[in-house]
Amino acid sequence: MADEPGEPGFHADPQRFREALSRTEAETGFSARLIEKDYFCTLILGDLTPMFDLGLVFKGGYLTLPVGDVC
User: Fold this and answer.
1) Nearest to 7 by CA among 48, 55, 61, 43
2) What phi-psi label fits residue 24: left (phi over 0), alpha (psi between -120 and 50 degrees) or beta?
3) Residue 71: its H or E element
4) Is residue 56 within a helix (H) or strand (E), and if so which, with residue range?
5) Rounded Cα gap, residues 44 and 62, in angstroms
6) Tens digits of per-residue pLDDT, 5-28?
7) pTM of the prediction?
8) Which of 5, 32, 41, 54 sits 20 to 30 Å CA-CA off 18?
9) Which residues, at least 6 apart from 28, have a Cβ–Cβ distance to it below 8 Å?
């Protein structure tokens, strides 16, 4: 992955990127499509961060598995 905004990322080598997606999918059980989406979202957020003086805080997501009673 790119360390600095604008640098080529891990996806610059399509074959290597596909292999990494497949390996990660096999190890985690998450679909390669979801992993790829998250990868590119992370790159975009990283490139957007310098545009904000105080930084950029990304807060979101959703719970996909029940965790029981919280209270």
Assistant:
1) 43
2) alpha
3) none
4) none
5) 20
6) 556 677 899 999 999 999 999 999
7) 0.64
8) 5
9) 35
Rounded Cα–Cα distance for residues 12 and 2 (Å): 10
Query: Which residues are within 8 A (CB) of 6 and not within 5 positions of it... i.e. 6 or more apart?
Result: 47
Q: What region, left, alpha or beta, does residue 61 occupy, with left being phi > 0 and alpha being psi -120 to 50 degrees?
A: left
How many residues would you count in the chain? 71
Tokens representing 20 are 């990494």
Residue type for position 40:
F
Q: Structure tokens of 70?
A: 């919280």
